[in-house]
Amino acid sequence: MEAIIQQFFNIEIMIKALPLVLKGLGVTLLICAVVIPLGALGGLFAAIASVSKNRAVRWTAIGFVDLFRAIPPLVLLIFIYAGLPFAGIQISPFVAVAVGFFLNNSAYFAEVFRAGILSVPKGQTEAARSTGMTQGQTLFWVTLPQAVRNVLPDLLSNVVEVVKLTSLASVVSLGEMLHAAGLVRSLTYNASPLVLAAGLYLVLLWPLIRLISRFERKIDT
Amino acid sequence: MQMDMFLDQFLNQAVLVKYTPLILKGAGVTVLLSVLIVLTGLTLGAGLACLRAYRIKAFSFAIVIFADVLRALPPLVLILLAFFGLPNIGVVLSSFTVLFLVLSLVLAAFAEEIVWAGITATPKGQWEAARSTGLTFTQALCYVVLPQAVRMVIPPLTNRAIAITKMTALGMVIGVPDILGQATTAQSFSANASPLTLAAIAYVVIFLPLVIASRWLEQRFTQKGS
Amino acid sequence: MASTYNEKGTPSSATLSVRALHKSFGVLPVLKGIDLHVQRSEMVFVLGPSGSGKSTMLRCCNLLEEPDSGAILIEGDKLTGPGVDLNKMRQRIGMVFQSFNLYPHLSALGNVTLALRRVLKMPREQAESEAIAALTKVGLSNRAGHFPSQLSGGQQQRVAIARALALKPTVMLFDEPTSALDPELVGDVLDVMRDVKEQGMTMLVVSHEMKFARDAADRVVFMDGGVIVEQGPPEQIFGAPTQERTRTFLSRFHG
């Protein structure tokens, strides 16, 4: 028991680690602020393309989505970060993370939006078109608002996944929260900084997870 | 010229030939880990969801805490904690075991929530019909409610299982010789990006059919309606 | 078959006895002291406006609802109280639901055999031949392999009746068995119920099928506001009801 407290919940070490870990938290949030809006937007476009009447557009979009759902995000990240320099392209860890997660996230957001669009009854489109709205107007004013409402829990849970995903940035030495905590751990040979980071992830994400659970209880499958 | 350089760096024939056996070995590790994680995670998750159905306060509370914490924490944090933290208190696990345990528990947490949602969405009349013929609570759960609940949630369960088995790539960080682990080693030895290309292809070959299958499953389920 | 109806009922010999049954949902009393005795092979019909407590009364009879007080007895054996194996008792009480509640993941045969195998612990072959016999009684032995989604509403309800019948219950409860059905499918279900009665089953039925009640019931019970307002042979209840509330209720159906 003593050893567990000493090795995992060492307050002294946590206090020492705190400034660095908090700085890392800032980077974590910065990645999220870039990747979530971009991924959602990319996903939305891919989703709209994936329900297009044009066969080529539809299959290209579905192919893109499935490809990036099949490749683990870490593989993508390392491919971009460690691979591109071989092609003479030098990029910073932050850009590598942003690009890699954008591709991965767009695919996941696209799946959610697509399910949402398909969940809106056909009669809605027909009603909107019968009042003289264009296809674009119908999509924007009638279909999407309902689609988003129908998949709100899934969108939220995607956001949670993105925040968790940012921890992978530590592998390419981007100084986000886990990287900072891991650094202090390797200096102190003590796991408490990791526990501190875990605690901060919990503070950040637990409210969202409770919210999702509550949403899901209301919606009968 | 551009193209030549690209091929040389990303699809270098000599490098590909040399390292393909290594990547294949890694693929074996990835597949083995994935199968073990899916079997353990889904069984444990469904078991916990069933336990929660008995609505014993202390158990339910513990299960919800377990599920919430494991869904909120990035798996990489748990992997590092287990791999670097546990030896300090005398528990030394291999990197393979750490990866297996952490991802199985994470999948169990998600599976518990998903199956539990299925159990609560099963109409009350099904319980009543089962109990009215004399089935016990446990029998009604096992033979009537759980089969329906699982069927209802197969699409989200499949998606989650795929997402989590893909995370076996995280094993590279603690030195598991899976596809990515082998590829990064090979890349640094060969000073060439081709092993990474090979790794990406290996993942696509393993996971793309699963992703497509899950899409097909989802389509079939939504068409059938409730 | 002679009517076994008796004005007061004879509690000691009744197949199903409900005694001083009280039940409330929160502060809202739903059943305010129900006494009802159903004799062997008797079909008792319970009528009443919605919210009269008739369904709750029926669901109390196999403890799908827990009564606040009072007693339920099957052939003199108490359903409530310490030391009672409720699952054993429930085998003696068949229940047919308004929404059928067939198990969607099992075939018609699987629906019927489940309790035979898991509750009565019959070997598979015996359970299946018993199930086929029960499905034959409801005219659906040729649909044994069909899943609920492949059956019409009327067929589903008949499978549900077979599921209850196969356990050879002492008494069967019917909770509005035809109200979820399209009008043209009601007849088949009522025919099956008539057959079941003719084979001597004791039945307690909550339903709005007035014509069927008039033709087939041995006794009609009218409930309103959580009490039994009046009861008697169908000719009496439909022809010359003594209570004002009964008359008002029935006049709405005669138009």
UniProtKB/TrEMBL annotation, chain A:
Keywords: Amino-acid transport, Cell membrane, Membrane, Transmembrane, Transmembrane helix, Transport
GO cellular component, as recorded: ATP-binding cassette (ABC) transporter complex
GO molecular function: transmembrane transporter activity
Start and end residues of each ABC transmembrane type-1 domain: 25-213
Domain of life: Bacteria
Topological category with respect to the lipid bilayer: Multi-pass membrane protein
Pfam families documented for this protein: BPD_transp_1 (PF00528)
GO annotation terms (biological process): amino acid transport
Entries under SUPFAM superfamilies matching the protein: MetI-like
CDD domains, A to Z: TM_PBP2
InterPro entries: AA_ABC_transptr_permease_3TM (IPR010065), ArtM/GltK/GlnP/TcyL/YhdX-like (IPR043429), MetI-like (IPR000515), MetI-like_sf (IPR035906)
Stretches that traverse the bilayer: 24-49, 70-103, 187-209
Annotated compartments: Cell inner membrane; Cell membrane
Classification via PROSITE patterns: ABC_TM1 (PS50928)
Similarity section: Belongs to the binding-protein-dependent transport system permease family. HisMQ subfamily.
Function: Part of the binding-protein-dependent transport system for glutamine; probably responsible for the translocation of the substrate across the membrane.
PANTHER family to which the protein is assigned, alphabetical: GLUTAMINE TRANSPORT SYSTEM PERMEASE PROTEIN GLNP, MEMBRANE COMPONENT OF AMINO ACID ABC TRANSPORTER
NCBIfam families registered for this protein in UniProt: HEQRo_perm_3TM
Stated name of the protein: Polar amino acid transport system permease protein
From TrEMBL, chain C:
Family statement: Belongs to the ABC transporter superfamily.
Protein's UniProt name: Polar amino acid transport system ATP-binding protein
Main location: membrane
One of the Pfam families matching this protein, by short name: ABC_tran
Molecular function via GO: ABC-type amino acid transporter activity; ATP binding; ATP hydrolysis activity
Signal peptide positions on this chain: none
Residue span, ABC transporter domain: 16-250
Record keywords, A-Z: Amino-acid transport, ATP-binding, Cell membrane, Membrane, Nucleotide-binding, Transport
GO cellular component terms given for this protein: plasma membrane
Subcellular location: Cell membrane
Bilayer topology term: Peripheral membrane protein
